[in-house]
Amino acid sequence: MKNDNTEKDTTKEPVFVTEKQTYDLVAKENPKDKIEVEIGDSKEPDVILPQAKIQRWDNEINVSIRLKDFNDYSVIQDKEKVIFGNELKEVYFYQKPEGDGANEIEVILKEKPKSNVVEFTLVDKDVEYFYQPELTSEEKLKGLTRPKKVVGSYAVYSKTKKINYVGGKEYKCGKVGHIYRPKIIDSAGTEVWGDLKIENGILSVTIPQDFLDKAVYPVKHAAGLEFGYQTNGGSTWGSSIDDLYCQSGTAASNGNVDSISFYASAAVNINMKGVLVLASNKNIVSDGVAGVKVFKTLGWYDSLYTSKPSVIASVGYYASVIADNNGVVMRYDSVPSSSLVDYSNSYTTPTNPTDGSVYTDYSFSIYATYTEEESGTDINDNRNAKTTGKNTSNSARQAKITGKSTTSSGIDSKIFGKAVSSSERNAKIIGIASQIYTREAVITLPDNDTDLATVYNISDLAKVVSDDNEYVDLTGSNIYFIHQFKQRNNNNTDQVNISIILKSDLAPSSKEVFLQVYNRGTEGWEEVDSDNSADANEEFTLSGLITGSLENYYDENNWVSFRVYQNI
Question: pTM for the full model?
Answer without folding.
Answer: 0.68
